[in-house]
Amino acid sequence: MVSQIEKRKADHLRLSATKDVSFHEKTTLLECVELNYKCLPQISMNDVDLSTEFLGKKFSFPFIVSAITGGAAVSKKVNTDIAEACQAIGIGMGLGSMRAMLQHPSLTETYFVRDVAPDIFLAGNIGAAQLKQFSPDDLNGALGAIEADALAIHLNAAQEAVQPEGDADFSGLIEKIAEFADKISVPVYVKEVGHGVSYEVAFALKDTKIKAIDTQGAGGTSWTAVDSLRHKTGFGEIFRDFGLPTAVSLMQVKSAIHGTGKKVIASGGIRNGIDAVKALVLGADMVGSAMPMLKAQTKNGSAGIKKQLTDLKKEMEIASFLVGCKNIAQLHSEKPIILGKLKEWMEN
Predict the structure, then answer these.
(1) Is the per-residue pLDDT at 3 higher than 70?
(2) What is the CATH number of the domain that holds 99?
(3) Contact between residue 52 and residue 285 where contact means Cβ atoms under 8 Å apart
């Protein structure tokens, strides 16, 4: 059984790094957001400081490397390289689903990165469907074993639905999320895996004790496409472009949880600092990305990820300077210019 889990995890990494697993017809719609360029920004770029705090941890800029892997020998190298880079840059990361280590504790080592990253924000991860399989005590034990600062519960109905072996029983999960958010020993947040969180879902979760919602919107990596390649059968390819674009999901989630104090992470197809700053102007508290970090790691290990992150941080600082904003609070006060399909979508 362990070998089957490891094969699945290795397949996911290989396919994501080497094959076309992107959305084909649908984009993030961040291209429909324009920033108000100020040719006299009235600040020095040296004044730009995008440092922030998220769930009790400090970040040098508002970015988290989204969950990628865990549960296979190859996962250890990927997670260690990411963690080393995050420690050096001063940001956080998410780990892949802990279901494998909960079922087979011998795989715990593939998730453990505190030896190279003692200070970073580190999120453990479990699928919402697996909340019926494990108890809060099970999760607390796993989170303690990897010394995680938070638990991300991932919502992946689209992915599960197209997997021949997928668990597509999502009944009663709002109540389960509420229960776990109340009993888990670290902050809990909810995330999609690449197909977006809607207003209705965010609104249904707003009264729970979760601390944040990560959009993981459409426009980046399509996990239905990944699984269509892995199985070579099923319905994954048909549903490749299914979901809510990242910009739509961000705006809907922000509206649904307004006034609750919950944070929003914008992720899904964030590929450069301009898109990241657009997301902040739309109201995101943090941004996240996975695929560029995996490809950088595949090519050049931790050094490749460090360069990717350093470049992204600089791009975000330049974009902030060009709209005359010194920090995230000022970016949140900027008025975005919304055009085209995004405007049409939000008006419907």
Answers:
(1) no
(2) 3.20.20.70
(3) yes
- Number of neighbours of residue 73 by Cβ within 10 angstroms: 12
DSSP state of 6: H
Per the structure, the complete domain to which residue 85 belongs is given by 2-347
**Contact, 316 vs 277, CB < 8 A?**
yes
Residue 249 and residue 196 in contact, taking contact as beta carbons nearer than 8 Å: yes
Looking at the structure of the chain, the number of domains it has is 1
Is the whole-model pTM more than 0.90? yes
Mean pLDDT of 6-13: 82
Instruction: Answer whether 151's CB lies under 8 Å from 124's CB.
Output: yes
**Selection from 64, 193, 189 nearest residue 121 by Cα:** 64
State in Å, rounded, how far the first CA of the chain is from the last one. Answer: 48
Q: Whole-angstrom Cα distance, residue 96 to residue 116? A: 18
Residue identified by tokens 């609070």 is 329
- Given the DSSP bridges, would you call strands 57-59 and 52-54 parallel, antiparallel or unpaired? antiparallel
Q: Is 340 helix (H, G, I), strand (E, B) or coil?
A: helix
Q: What is the pLDDT of residues 31-62, one digit of tens each?
A: 999 999 999 999 999 999 999 999 999 999 99
